[in-house]
Inverse folding.
Protein backbone atom coordinates (compact mmCIF):
# COMPACT_ATOMS: atom_id res chain seq x y z
CA UNK A 1 0.00 0.00 0.00
CA UNK A 2 1.11 3.59 -0.58
CA UNK A 3 2.50 5.51 2.37
CA UNK A 4 0.00 7.89 3.94
CA UNK A 5 0.51 11.63 3.78
CA UNK A 6 -0.45 13.96 6.63
CA UNK A 7 -4.11 15.01 6.32
CA UNK A 8 -4.84 18.56 5.26
CA UNK A 9 -6.07 20.97 7.89
CA UNK A 10 -9.72 21.80 7.17
CA UNK A 11 -9.67 19.62 4.05
CA UNK A 12 -12.48 19.97 1.53
CA UNK A 13 -14.31 16.91 0.31
CA UNK A 14 -13.31 17.45 -3.32
CA UNK A 15 -10.99 19.48 -5.53
CA UNK A 16 -12.04 19.57 -9.18
CA UNK A 17 -9.18 20.23 -11.60
CA UNK A 18 -9.78 21.36 -15.17
CA UNK A 19 -6.61 21.62 -17.30
CA UNK A 20 -7.26 23.82 -20.30
CA UNK A 21 -5.75 25.84 -23.09
CA UNK A 22 -7.89 28.29 -25.06
CA UNK A 23 -11.18 26.83 -23.80
CA UNK A 24 -12.80 30.09 -22.68
CA UNK A 25 -16.17 29.42 -24.32
CA UNK A 26 -16.40 25.89 -22.89
CA UNK A 27 -15.40 27.06 -19.40
CA UNK A 28 -18.27 29.54 -19.53
CA UNK A 29 -20.74 26.68 -18.96
CA UNK A 30 -18.47 24.04 -17.38
CA UNK A 31 -17.79 26.14 -14.29
CA UNK A 32 -21.46 26.35 -13.35
CA UNK A 33 -22.02 22.69 -14.23
CA UNK A 34 -19.39 21.79 -11.63
CA UNK A 35 -21.01 24.11 -9.10
CA UNK A 36 -24.42 22.52 -9.67
CA UNK A 37 -23.07 18.97 -9.52
CA UNK A 38 -21.34 19.49 -6.17
CA UNK A 39 -23.88 21.79 -4.54
CA UNK A 40 -24.18 20.97 -0.86
CA UNK A 41 -20.67 19.51 -0.67
CA UNK A 42 -17.42 21.23 0.32
CA UNK A 43 -15.36 21.66 -2.84
CA UNK A 44 -13.15 23.91 -4.90
CA UNK A 45 -12.73 24.21 -8.65
CA UNK A 46 -9.18 24.80 -9.87
CA UNK A 47 -8.81 25.96 -13.46
CA UNK A 48 -5.24 25.37 -14.62
CA UNK A 49 -4.75 27.67 -17.59
CA UNK A 50 -1.95 26.15 -19.68
CA UNK A 51 -0.77 29.29 -21.45
CA UNK A 52 -4.09 30.40 -22.99
CA UNK A 53 -4.28 33.54 -25.13
CA UNK A 54 -8.08 33.72 -25.50
CA UNK A 55 -8.97 35.92 -22.48
CA UNK A 56 -9.61 32.93 -20.23
CA UNK A 57 -8.24 35.05 -17.38
CA UNK A 58 -10.87 37.76 -17.99
CA UNK A 59 -13.68 35.22 -17.81
CA UNK A 60 -12.37 33.64 -14.60
CA UNK A 61 -11.88 37.00 -12.89
CA UNK A 62 -15.48 37.90 -13.64
CA UNK A 63 -16.86 34.51 -12.53
CA UNK A 64 -14.86 34.53 -9.28
CA UNK A 65 -16.87 37.55 -8.04
CA UNK A 66 -19.86 35.30 -7.34
CA UNK A 67 -18.20 31.87 -7.07
CA UNK A 68 -15.86 31.82 -4.05
CA UNK A 69 -14.94 28.20 -4.70
CA UNK A 70 -13.28 29.09 -8.04
CA UNK A 71 -9.47 29.23 -8.28
CA UNK A 72 -7.20 30.12 -11.22
CA UNK A 73 -3.67 28.79 -11.71
CA UNK A 74 -1.76 29.75 -14.83
CA UNK A 75 1.23 28.40 -16.73
CA UNK A 76 2.92 31.31 -18.49
CA UNK A 77 3.97 28.88 -21.23
CA UNK A 78 2.10 25.77 -22.30
CA UNK A 79 3.45 22.65 -20.55
CA UNK A 80 0.84 20.09 -21.60
CA UNK A 81 -2.16 18.43 -20.00
CA UNK A 82 -0.29 16.17 -17.59
CA UNK A 83 1.68 19.06 -16.12
CA UNK A 84 -1.51 21.09 -15.80
CA UNK A 85 -3.21 18.29 -13.87
CA UNK A 86 -0.17 17.95 -11.61
CA UNK A 87 -0.09 21.70 -10.95
CA UNK A 88 -3.70 21.54 -9.83
CA UNK A 89 -3.03 18.47 -7.70
CA UNK A 90 -0.12 20.09 -5.86
CA UNK A 91 -2.30 23.08 -4.93
CA UNK A 92 -5.49 21.15 -4.15
CA UNK A 93 -7.10 21.02 -0.72
CA UNK A 94 -9.63 18.24 -1.30
CA UNK A 95 -9.67 14.69 0.05
CA UNK A 96 -10.76 13.54 -3.41
CA UNK A 97 -9.26 14.92 -6.62
CA UNK A 98 -11.70 15.05 -9.53
CA UNK A 99 -10.54 15.75 -13.08
CA UNK A 100 -12.29 16.56 -16.32
CA UNK A 101 -11.19 17.93 -19.67
CA UNK A 102 -11.74 21.57 -20.55
CA UNK A 103 -13.35 20.85 -23.92
CA UNK A 104 -16.85 20.44 -22.47
CA UNK A 105 -17.24 16.82 -23.56
CA UNK A 106 -17.12 15.49 -19.96
CA UNK A 107 -20.26 15.93 -17.84
CA UNK A 108 -19.35 16.75 -14.18
CA UNK A 109 -22.79 15.61 -12.97
CA UNK A 110 -21.23 12.15 -12.49
CA UNK A 111 -18.79 13.37 -9.82
CA UNK A 112 -21.07 12.77 -6.80
CA UNK A 113 -21.64 9.16 -7.90
CA UNK A 114 -17.89 8.64 -8.37
CA UNK A 115 -16.96 10.16 -5.00
CA UNK A 116 -19.62 8.13 -3.19
CA UNK A 117 -18.45 4.92 -4.89
CA UNK A 118 -14.95 5.41 -3.50
CA UNK A 119 -16.29 6.16 -0.03
CA UNK A 120 -18.47 3.04 -0.07
CA UNK A 121 -15.59 0.87 -1.28
CA UNK A 122 -13.23 1.82 1.53
CA UNK A 123 -9.59 2.99 1.61
CA UNK A 124 -8.35 0.42 -0.91
CA UNK A 125 -10.70 1.81 -3.57
CA UNK A 126 -8.48 4.59 -4.87
CA UNK A 127 -9.76 5.57 -8.32
CA UNK A 128 -13.19 5.99 -9.90
CA UNK A 129 -12.69 6.05 -13.67
CA UNK A 130 -15.33 7.21 -16.12
CA UNK A 131 -16.03 4.95 -19.08
CA UNK A 132 -17.61 6.79 -22.00
CA UNK A 133 -20.83 5.47 -23.53
CA UNK A 134 -22.10 6.37 -27.02
CA UNK A 135 -19.03 8.39 -27.88
CA UNK A 136 -19.43 11.35 -30.21
CA UNK A 137 -15.93 11.33 -31.78
CA UNK A 138 -15.38 10.77 -35.49
CA UNK A 139 -14.75 7.32 -36.98
CA UNK A 140 -10.96 7.72 -37.36
CA UNK A 141 -10.52 9.06 -33.83
CA UNK A 142 -12.73 6.30 -32.46
CA UNK A 143 -10.76 3.62 -34.30
CA UNK A 144 -7.40 4.91 -33.04
CA UNK A 145 -8.73 5.14 -29.49
CA UNK A 146 -10.14 1.61 -29.65
CA UNK A 147 -6.83 0.27 -30.92
CA UNK A 148 -4.85 2.11 -28.24
CA UNK A 149 -7.15 0.85 -25.48
CA UNK A 150 -6.96 -2.73 -26.77
CA UNK A 151 -3.14 -2.70 -26.85
CA UNK A 152 -2.93 -1.03 -23.43
CA UNK A 153 -5.29 -3.51 -21.83
CA UNK A 154 -3.43 -6.48 -23.31
CA UNK A 155 -0.10 -5.23 -21.95
CA UNK A 156 -1.03 -3.60 -18.64
CA UNK A 157 -4.09 -5.66 -17.68
CA UNK A 158 -5.72 -2.74 -15.87
CA UNK A 159 -9.27 -3.96 -16.68
CA UNK A 160 -10.17 -0.53 -18.04
CA UNK A 161 -11.74 -0.24 -21.49
CA UNK A 162 -11.48 3.57 -21.74
CA UNK A 163 -8.38 4.90 -20.01
CA UNK A 164 -8.58 8.20 -21.91
CA UNK A 165 -11.81 9.44 -20.36
CA UNK A 166 -11.09 12.72 -18.56
CA UNK A 167 -13.68 12.09 -15.82
CA UNK A 168 -11.78 10.58 -12.91
CA UNK A 169 -11.83 10.84 -9.12
CA UNK A 170 -8.72 9.82 -7.15
CA UNK A 171 -7.95 9.85 -3.45
CA UNK A 172 -5.53 12.74 -2.94
CA UNK A 173 -3.00 10.75 -0.91
CA UNK A 174 -2.81 8.11 -3.62
CA UNK A 175 -2.58 10.60 -6.49
CA UNK A 176 0.33 12.46 -4.89
CA UNK A 177 2.32 9.25 -4.55
CA UNK A 178 1.95 8.01 -8.12
CA UNK A 179 5.04 8.35 -10.36
CA UNK A 180 4.75 11.41 -12.60
CA UNK A 181 5.63 11.52 -16.30
CA UNK A 182 4.21 13.14 -19.42
CA UNK A 183 0.81 11.65 -20.31
CA UNK A 184 0.37 10.02 -16.90
CA UNK A 185 -3.32 11.00 -16.96
CA UNK A 186 -3.87 8.32 -19.62
CA UNK A 187 -2.48 5.56 -17.42
CA UNK A 188 -3.96 6.27 -13.99
CA UNK A 189 -5.85 2.93 -13.75
CA UNK A 190 -2.67 0.94 -14.43
CA UNK A 191 -0.64 3.05 -11.98
CA UNK A 192 -3.26 2.58 -9.25
CA UNK A 193 -3.49 -1.18 -9.84
CA UNK A 194 0.32 -1.30 -9.69
CA UNK A 195 0.06 -0.18 -6.06
CA UNK A 196 -2.31 -3.01 -5.14
CA UNK A 197 -5.31 -0.66 -5.00
CA UNK A 198 -8.70 -0.95 -6.68
CA UNK A 199 -10.41 0.90 -9.52
CA UNK A 200 -14.16 1.50 -9.72
CA UNK A 201 -15.57 1.95 -13.24
CA UNK A 202 -18.51 4.31 -13.81
CA UNK A 203 -20.35 4.54 -17.14
CA UNK A 204 -20.65 8.19 -18.21
CA UNK A 205 -22.21 10.04 -21.13
CA UNK A 206 -19.91 11.52 -23.76
CA UNK A 207 -20.87 14.88 -25.24
CA UNK A 208 -19.86 16.61 -28.44
CA UNK A 209 -17.46 19.55 -28.30
CA UNK A 210 -19.47 22.79 -28.24
CA UNK A 211 -16.66 25.22 -29.03
CA UNK A 212 -13.11 25.15 -30.38
CA UNK A 213 -11.04 22.32 -31.79
CA UNK A 214 -9.16 19.41 -30.26
CA UNK A 215 -5.54 19.99 -29.20
CA UNK A 216 -4.65 16.38 -30.08
CA UNK A 217 -4.23 14.59 -33.38
CA UNK A 218 -4.39 10.86 -34.10
CA UNK A 219 -0.64 10.42 -33.77
CA UNK A 220 -0.59 12.28 -30.43
CA UNK A 221 -3.04 9.77 -28.99
CA UNK A 222 -1.78 6.58 -30.60
CA UNK A 223 1.94 6.48 -31.37
CA UNK A 224 3.16 8.73 -28.55
CA UNK A 225 0.96 6.72 -26.22
CA UNK A 226 2.65 3.51 -27.29
CA UNK A 227 6.03 4.86 -26.18
CA UNK A 228 4.54 5.72 -22.79
CA UNK A 229 2.90 2.31 -22.67
CA UNK A 230 6.24 0.51 -22.59
CA UNK A 231 7.42 2.84 -19.81
CA UNK A 232 4.36 2.01 -17.68
CA UNK A 233 4.85 -1.69 -18.43
CA UNK A 234 8.41 -1.40 -17.11
CA UNK A 235 7.15 0.36 -13.97
CA UNK A 236 4.56 -2.37 -13.40
CA UNK A 237 7.13 -5.14 -13.73
CA UNK A 238 9.47 -3.40 -11.28
CA UNK A 239 6.73 -3.33 -8.61
CA UNK A 240 7.11 -6.94 -7.50
CA UNK A 241 6.20 -6.73 -3.81
CA UNK A 242 3.53 -4.68 -2.07
CA UNK A 243 4.13 -4.61 1.68
CA UNK A 244 1.36 -5.01 4.24
CA UNK A 245 2.07 -2.39 6.93
CA UNK A 246 1.03 -2.32 10.57
CA UNK A 247 2.25 0.08 13.25
CA UNK A 248 3.53 -1.46 16.48
CA UNK A 249 2.49 0.22 19.70
CA UNK A 250 5.84 0.80 21.40
CA UNK A 251 4.25 1.97 24.64
CA UNK A 252 1.89 -0.98 25.13
CA UNK A 253 4.04 -2.69 27.81
CA UNK A 254 5.21 0.46 29.59
CA UNK A 255 2.13 0.60 31.81
CA UNK A 256 2.71 -2.88 33.31
Amino acid sequence: MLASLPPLAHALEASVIIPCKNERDNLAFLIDEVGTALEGRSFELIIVDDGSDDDTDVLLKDYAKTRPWLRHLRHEKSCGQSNAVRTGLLHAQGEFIATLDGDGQNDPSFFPQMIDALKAGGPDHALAAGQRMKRTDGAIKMASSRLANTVRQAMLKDNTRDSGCGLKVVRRQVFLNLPFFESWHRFLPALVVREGLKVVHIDVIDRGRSHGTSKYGIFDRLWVGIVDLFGVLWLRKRRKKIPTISEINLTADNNN
Residues 12-238 form a domain with the Spore Coat Polysaccharide Biosynthesis Protein SpsA; Chain A fold (CATH 3.90.550.10). The two ends are 34 Å apart (CA to CA). The longest helix spans residues 139-156.
